Amino acid sequence: MPRLLGWDKKRCAERATELMSMVALDPKKYLKRYPRELSGGQQRRIGVIRALAADPPVLLMDEPFGAVDPINRETIQNEFFQMQRQLKKTVIMVSHDIDEAIKLGDRVAVFRRGKLVQYDHPDTLLAHPRDDFVGQFVGADSTLKRACYWSRPATRRRRQKPRVPTHRSQRHSRRWTTTTSAI
């Protein structure tokens, strides 16, 4: 994408090196490799940084960690969380995994049959599901999920009130996660 935007080779290489370092892939070791020479988890990391290469203001991700085994999935989620915070990108992520939505999202939207049922802060969603559908969707262990949520670093725990961004830096300092259900 950066080449389509007219970036020169040096700028493209610098951006690739910067992003690869963020996802724990040594650029000296991996920059010249082809995708077929990488593991599935490494390929997924490359996919994420390719999406970020041109520095888009908003990133839309549809089940970005769905095809990754559980061990690599957690690692990649953690790396992505740190990278998102560092780059201050707004991310809209579609996931059917409520645990992933709670872990990564500042706000979570739950849909049923294409209709928005509840849109809230993860803690509010877990503590006060709007109806039985949301209660079943977040699961019977929502108290345990809340305890895990509140055990994270303080920068993650802050309640965030929805606000309309007034300028570019505010707009890009938030992340939103969308959770959908096929029911």
UniProtKB/TrEMBL annotation:
**Annotated stretches, region: Disordered:** 154-183
UniProt feature, compositional bias: Basic residues: 154-175
Coiled coil (residue ranges): none
* Molecular function terms, GO-annotated: ATP binding; ATP hydrolysis activity
Q: Which domain of life does the UniProt lineage start with?
A: Bacteria
Instruction: List residues of the ABC transporter domain.
Output: 13-65
Protein keywords? ATP-binding, Nucleotide-binding, Transport
Similarity-based family: Belongs to the ABC transporter superfamily.
From the Swiss-Prot or TrEMBL record, give the protein name. Answer: Osmoprotectant transport system ATP-binding protein
- Write down the species: Paraburkholderia diazotrophica
